[in-house]
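Attaching the record inline, Q. Sequence:
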Amino acid sequence: MATPRLRLPVETARLVIRELVEGDLDALHAWRKHPAYRRYLPMPRQTRAEVEAELEAILRDQIDHRRVRYLLGVVEKMSGQVVGEAILKLGPALRHRQAEIGWAVAESAKGKGYATEIGKALLDAAFGQFRLHRVFAMCGTDNTASRRVMEKLGLREEGTLREHFRARERWWSSHLFAMLETEYRS
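Structure, as predicted:
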């Protein structure tokens, strides 16, 4: 049986969340190479070739009828520029009616409330289109901006995963936030 598909594009007041396309490579690489992008992410700096390979994998995933991971582009309506990414991971948690959401905003677009707008759109899709029971998000324990976004969205802190991930020569800890369908509906 095919996994339900996310209906795209998703529009908010100022943004369009859509599938990434080949033409997004330059924008994707530009914000991913910026030191601020990976400051709170346990991933190494990506070369243009690595970003291109990831984009190619994303483009292949877009046609998979069993798709459970959405890495999407976020376009600012006024400028038409790609200013971020939105992530919805259904994965094995789908059978338990759960998903993980995430976002990243280009350094040039920070401070405009876009991360909150992206998060709200992802919650609407998760609880509306997929009728999930629980949606969660995580951020590094030192990422106060992402933590504030989760709080603004109404996600509740469930705890801290201490040193649960090793990358870039160190252990990473994360805050775990979540929202239940009943909380979303009220």
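The radius of gyration is 16 Å. The longest strand covers residues 156-167.

More tomorrow.
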